Amino acid sequence: MQIIALAVVLQLFMLLANQVFNHSDAISPTKVFYKKGDHPGWAEVALKDDDWSDTQPESNGIYWIRAEFDLSNHRFPDRKKELVISVLGAYEVYFEGVFIGKNGQLSSNASEETPGYLDQKFILPEFSSKNGKRVLALRISNHLGNPAKHQISLSIDSYNEFYKYGIVLSLLLYTLAGMFLTVALYYSFLFFVSRRRIGYLLFGVFCLVLFALIIQTYSRYYWPYLYPQYSSWLMISGMLSLLAAILLPIFIIDNFQPPWKNWIIAVSTLVVVVSYLKFSFDESTPLFFSVTISTFLTIWAIFKKRSGSWEALTGLLIFLTGMMYFDQSIFVGFGILVMANLFSLAVIQKKERGDYEASLLRSSRLKLELLKKNLKPHFLMNSLTNIISLIENEPKTSIRLIEALSEEFYSLNEMTDKKLVSLHQELKLCDSHLEVMGIRNDITYEFSKEVDSMNIMLPPATLHTLVENGITHCRPLDGKVKFDLLIKENKAITFIQMKVKGILKKGKAPKAGTGISYLRSRLEESFPGQWKLEYGKLDEHTWYTNIEF
Q1: Is 87 in the same domain as 136?
Q2: Dihedral sign, CA of 174, 179, 183, 185?
Q3: CA–CA dist 335, 316 (Å, integer)
Q4: Among 343-352, 381-390, 501-510, 514-523, where is mean pLDDT lowest?
Q5: Is the pLDDT of residue 195 over 70?
Q6: Helix (H), strand (E) counts: the chain
Q7: Comparing C-alpha atoms, which of 67, 72, 27 is closest to residue 49?
């Protein structure tokens, strides 16, 4: 229910934002015609323009534009009006046949042309305040730009409304950009001070790209630039949009960890880049593919019951809906997308925090288990009883038992607070325990070792538990119990095998008890989901335990 409510609220906010950001008071032309060439008479109101084209010229040089405006239903007929023009070129402006200004200096060749600004406005004469149809004519030269990369914009508005609207709009969106920057810095810092989870860095960079995209897009209201610079402006905008489109699915993939994630990242990146190049550097197409891919990945995460998947899907679907406008509201859509993913990350972080706290509790429990396994009252009482008896009859042997027992307790104490210990520590603990039990039980325990490397790290008391199980469940065969330890390393895999040779009690290998349960818990703590434990009877007098991680 919370997700549905969030989706409804965010969708209504998106629609409201589109209405607020949609500047509807400006009057657009009812007709626009173009003609290549140059003639002073083309500025006349009464000119017959039947042979003019409705297609913008795609070649450089001098050409004319004639546009017709209908001011009959203008909401503010008594206000001073201004003409707002966005054209790639230097041009002269004629309104109702009257020259009212120019932008740059026209020329028949590139070397003599002085480029004009991309956005320019001109105050219209007083007679334009009257209702009726009006004719605008532009004489343009565009030797220094690429006209095919620009949509000509002509409109009439109340005086200063264009820049008022632009400044208010940009301030609102710069506030949104500030949010993106704050989130970007927070998650970038979180990446460096926490466990360096790459998803945090990806999300931070994604928000930083959105911040740069807003700043770059609305800089034209504060720092007007000449029309030849438009290609560079467009390239920067396209590259930022492309980068955002690439980063989004990679972040989603890292967040929900689907199988074959490296292949999915490669394919999604390739699809986004190819769509950008295929559709003539159009910004909306790669974003559409990016959000679509991310949506399917999030739906998969929902089926797999991944934390935060519903929240992420809500933001993606709302953003996908908002793309039908692809104007200022798309930045609001980005804001909604970021908020939804913030919510998703918060849910994931909450789960991870819970898992971490559970792991701490499990770790504490395992430490207690380790101590309880070896500080059992009967173990201490039997050992002390043996020491007392040996002091009277065999003083030297009693000293050996005391030294071995103290060495065992010292080794256990060193391991208590560690998640992994060295193989050397493990073997030392096993030797001490075998010596203690050998003296106590008057049994010979042989311990042979075949080890590839001493650099292996193990969970505490792993081998000690296997040795303890062998002592508990095996009686001597030919006066002794033999332990054979084999440890091999193969690339990233460690294989451990412990064989115990003796007379198995009750004629079978021991069942899974507290020792095996302890091993499973320790292996899962140290190598979650990446370990194997097998045990069983090898022959009449041998049982084995295999561990792989």
Answers
A1: yes
A2: positive
A3: 11
A4: 381-390
A5: no
A6: 13, 17
A7: 67
Instruction: Specify the amino acid at residue 323.
Output: M
CA-based nearest residue to 290, from 250, 321, 256:
250
- For residue 79, which amino acid is it? R
Q: Which of 300, 324, 354 is the last residue of a domain?
A: 354
Q: Write b or e for each residue in 218-231: b if 16 or more Cβ atoms lie within 10 A of its Cβ, otherwise e.
A: bebbeeeebbbebe
Q: What is the CATH number of the domain that holds 49?
A: 2.60.120.260
- Among 34-43, 167-176, 290-299, 394-403, the range scoring the smallest mean pLDDT is 394-403
Predicted local distance difference test score (pLDDT) of residue 132: 76
| Structural domain range at position 398 | 376-548
User: Is 472 domain-assigned?
Assistant: yes
Task: Go through 398-420 and write b for each residue having 16 or more CB atoms within 10 A of its CB, e for each that does not.
Answer: bebbbebbebbbebbeebeeeeb
- Asked if residues 79 and 129 have their Cβ atoms less than 8 Å apart, the reply is yes
Please give the tally of structural domains in the chain.
Answer: 3
Domain membership flag for residue 82: yes
* 330/386 same-domain check: no
Please check whether residue 440 lies inside any domain of the structure: yes
For residue 535, what are the CA distances in angstroms to 91, 337, 509, 542? 88, 51, 8, 11
Are 142 and 182 found together in one domain? no
Q: Mean per-residue pLDDT for 106-113?
A: 89
Q: Which helix (H) or strand (E) holds 539?
A: strand 532-539
The pLDDT value recorded for residue 160 is 66
Residues 216 and 94 in one domain: no
String of DSSP letters for 102-171: EESB--SSTTT-BPPBSEEEEEPPGGGGSSSEEEEEEEEE-TTS-GGG---EEEEEETTHHHHHHHHHHH
Query: Are 75 and 183 within one domain?
Result: no
Residue from 342, 71, 358 nearest 187 by CA? 342
Residues 334 and 390 in one domain: no
> What is the distance between the alpha carbons of residues 390 and 380, in angstroms, rounded to a whole number?
15
Give the rounded distance of the alpha carbon of 20 from its chain centre: 31
Q: Find the helix packing angle between 284-303 and 230-256, rounded to 10°.
A: 10
Q: Do 349 and 411 fall within a single domain?
A: no
In a domain, 361, yes or no: no
DSSP string, 265-300: HHHHHHHHHHHHHHTTT-SHHHHHHHHHHHHHHHHH
- Say if CB 103 and CB 181 are below 8 A apart: no
What's the pLDDT tens digit per position in 282-335?
Answer: 677 888 888 889 889 988 988 888 877 787 888 788 777 766 554 556 777 777
- Per-residue pLDDT at 102: 93
Task: Clarify whether residues 395 and 525 are in a common domain.
Answer: yes
Q: Distance between CA 82 and CA 157 in Å, rounded? A: 6
Q: Which of 128, 159, 190 is the last residue of a domain?
A: 159
